[in-house]
Design goal:
Helix 1 packs parallel to helix 3. The chain has five helices and seven strands, in the order E-E-E-E-H-H-H-E-H-E-H-E. Strands 4-1-7-5-6 form a five-stranded mixed β-sheet. Strands 2-3 form a two-stranded antiparallel ribbon.
């Protein structure tokens, strides 16, 4: 078995679509980034690559590559899992935390969990997503950014 940790942080920007965990959340701000800037899927994909000893998200999907401009981050997760699978690893479980002051995410967590499980080809019981506020501290707490941290457990593929 192998454990990986992934983190991501993007600033909020007016006029962008907000996508977290593969779920679009209605509002007037979204995350700035080269792709759709889904910090949660980025953190999970980074954790998968790290656990498999295969570098990080930036090495596989650099922001300097125009192929990834506006890309759906679900592609990053599925490709990270494919690469890990080719190296003999399968996803056992994911535990992730999204840190955001706004919008409130409690009503979206179940949808994120289901979408992540669908993308990963695992049951929803193998995925956990939590949300925390920034308590008014740092860029997240001031409502300027959203961050995510993910821990994944990979097991030898059957």
């Amino acid at each position: 078995m192998r454990v990986g940790i992934g983190e991501d942080l993007h600033r909020l920007e007016e006029g962008r679509r907000l996508v977290l965990g593969g779920v679009t959340i209605e509002g007037d701000v979204g995350l700035a980034g080269h792709s759709d800037a889904d910090v949660l899927l980025h953190a999970i994909a980074d954790a998968v690559l790290g656990a498999a000893g295969l570098g990080d998200l930036g090495a596989h999907f650099p922001s300097s590559d125009e192929r990834w401009a506006g890309a759906d981050s679900g592609l990053f997760l599925t490709e990270a899992l494919r690469i890990a699978g080719a190296s003999g690893w399968a996803l056992a479980n994911v535990d992730a935390t999204v840190r955001a002051e706004r919008p409130r995410l409690a009503g979206h967590l179940a949808g994120m969990r289901e979408r992540i499980a669908e993308l990963a080809g695992v049951s929803a019981e193998q995925v956990n997503v939590k949300a925390k506020s920034g308590e008014g501290l740092d860029a997240i707490g001031r409502g300027e950014a959203i961050g995510a941290t993910a821990v994944v457990l990979l097991e030898a593929a059957p």
